[in-house]
Design goal:
elongated; 5-stranded mixed sheet; alpha+beta; two-stranded antiparallel sheet; binds zinc ion; about 250 residues
Length: about 250
């Protein structure tokens, strides 16, 4: 069976009598750990075959620091580090995404491609994620890698979470959804005149699927267009009412 890095590299039938140091996939002796893994490599605890002396050509491709990148908007960037981008890869090829393409990424995760496919979302761009990503073989429940975490996604559940996040973001802004303090509650109440979706989001805000939904959600401006302010009560009265929730 192929591994995620092999699909990323367009290798559908790997050969050889060895297993790759990084991904554990079948490989030959073309690339050695001695030559391709720096002494300073500190992630030996997360590689699949730490005792192997070889790495596969798929992993060599995922670790490329001078790659030609095909972006989702058809722009091509030359000599780039693969780790700086989010990726969707299938048997038809690989496409890179930046944070400017969150809407496209959301559409892909909600309507995933024909398996096998891989989805890797880079948050910091600092870490090598592709070699440890896993392939999806099912369109109803599948793994999505968000930075170092592999999250099992059901598209229907994710869509509901994104819709809920969007209601809350409209009132208090995207960064606040990881905090949900009493100041945010006051701001939210001021916007909608109730705390319904605020409480609903707060209940599961730290779940993996919530964090994925938050990463994919649009900006406050876009959310506010969809969910305008509905509370017209004067601020003084709002303060008095929200004190009930502290
Ligand atoms: Zn490999």
């Amino acid at each position: 069976m192929i591994t995620a890095p092999q699909l990323f590299a367009g290798i559908f039938e790997p050969n050889g009598d060895h297993n790759c140091f990084y991904c554990g996939g079948q490989c030959n002796t073309d690339y050695t750990v001695k030559k391709y893994v720096k002494d300073t490599f500190t992630n030996r605890d997360i590689v699949r075959q730490p005792a192997s002396e070889y790495i596969c050509s798929g992993c060599v491709c995922t670790l490329n620091e001078r790659a030609n990148i095909n972006l989702a908007n058809e722009e091509i960037r030359e000599s780039q580090k693969t780790r700086l981008y989010s990726w969707v890869f299938t048997k038809s090829g690989r496409v890179a995404y930046t944070k400017a393409h969150l809407k496209l990424l959301t559409n892909i995760i909600i309507n995933p491609p024909e398996p096998p496919f891989g989805i890797v979302l880079a948050v910091t761009g600092q870490k090598q994620l592709l070699f440890r990503s896993v392939l999806a073989w099912n369109r109803d429940r599948f793994p999505v890698m968000l930075e170092e975490e592999i999250i099992t996604v059901s598209p229907a559940e994710l869509l509901i979470k994104i819709q809920l996040a969007s209601i809350v973001i409209a009132a208090i802004g995207k960064p606040s959804l990881g905090e949900m303090s009493s100041n945010h509650a006051i701001k939210y109440y001021d916007y909608y005149g109730n705390l319904d979706s605020f409480e609903l989001w707060k209940k599961n805000m730290h779940s993996p699927i919530s964090r994925l939904a938050l990463f994919l959600s649009p900006s406050q401006k876009e959310c506010a267009n969809e969910h305008p302010r509905t509370n017209n009560v004067k601020p003084g009265r709002v303060q008095a009412q929200t004190s009930l929730f502290d």
